[in-house]
Amino acid sequence: METLEPILAAHPFLQGLDPRHLQSIGECATKVTFEAGRLLFRGQDEATHFYLINQGQVALEIFTARRGPIMIQSLSDGDAAGWLWFPTPYHWHYDARAIFLTRALALNVKELMQRCEQDPLLGYELMKRYAHLLAVQFRVTILQLVDMYGA
C-alpha cells in the first residue's frame, strides 16, 4: 500500500511537521488530478476537501453578473487551494479552476478537523500554517487593490 507521507512532507504547507502528524494527515489524503478547465470547487458549495498542489496551475475566481468569472489569484506547485474552509460552516467563497493539468493531494476537511480536535498539537500546527496563508493572502489583496486603484 502506497503511503502519501513522503509527498506530504515535501509540500511547503506541511514541511517540518512531526512524522506522526504527517501520518495522521496522510490517512485523510488522496491523490487527485484535474484536467485543464475542470473545477476543483465552486463558490457556495460545501467545502469537502483542501488541496495541496503538487504540479499544475489553478485559478481562483469570483463570478460577477457583469463580467463573468474574474481571476483573483493563480496558484501553482507548492501552493494550497481552498484555505477558506477552516472556519465553519465549511463552504467555499470562490471558484477554483485548473488552468493546466493539475496534480494535487485532496485532504478530507471533516476527517482533518476531527483529527485536529482529537490532537490539539496537530490542530495548532495546522492553525499556524493557516494563519500564514491568511497573512500572505492579505498582502496579495492589498497589492491588487493598490494596482487596481493606482494608489
The name of the CATH topology is Jelly Rolls
| Average residue pLDDT | 89
**What is the correct CATH architecture?**
Sandwich
End-to-end span in angstroms? 55 Å
Strand order of the largest sheet: 1-8-3-6
Helix content: 25-40%
CATH superfamily: Jelly Rolls
The dominant shape is: globular
Number of helices: 4
Radius of gyration computed on alpha carbons:
16 Å
What are the secondary-structure elements, in order, as H or E? HHEEEEEEEEHH
Q: Runs with pLDDT <50, length 5+? A: none
Q: How many beta-strand elements?
A: 8
Instruction: Give a quick account of the main beta sheet: strands, pairing sense, barrel closure.
Output: 4 strands, antiparallel
Residues in β-strands, percent = 25-35%
What count of structural domains?
A: 1
What is the CATH first-level class name?
A: Mainly Beta
Structural class: alpha+beta
Itemize the secondary structure elements and their pairings.
Layout: H1 5-10, H2 19-26, E1 29-34, E2 39-41, E3 49-55, E4 57-64, E5 68-76, E6 80-81, E7 95-98, E8 102-108, H3 109-118, H4 120-149
Antiparallel strand pairs: 1-8, 2-7, 3-6, 3-8, 4-5, 4-7
Helix pairs in contact: 3-4
Please explain how this structure is put together.
The protein is α+β, with helices and mostly antiparallel strands. It has one domain (5-149): Jelly Rolls (Sandwich). It is 36% helix and 30% strand. The protein has helices at residues 5-10, 19-26, 109-118, 120-149; strands at residues 29-34, 39-41, 49-55, 57-64, 68-76, 80-81, 95-98, 102-108. The strands form two sheets. A four-stranded antiparallel beta sheet has the order 1-8-3-6. The protein has a four-stranded antiparallel beta sheet with strand order 2-7-4-5, with no helix packed on it. β4 (57-64) and β5 form a beta hairpin. The protein is globular and about 45 Å long. The model has no long low-confidence stretch (mean pLDDT 89).
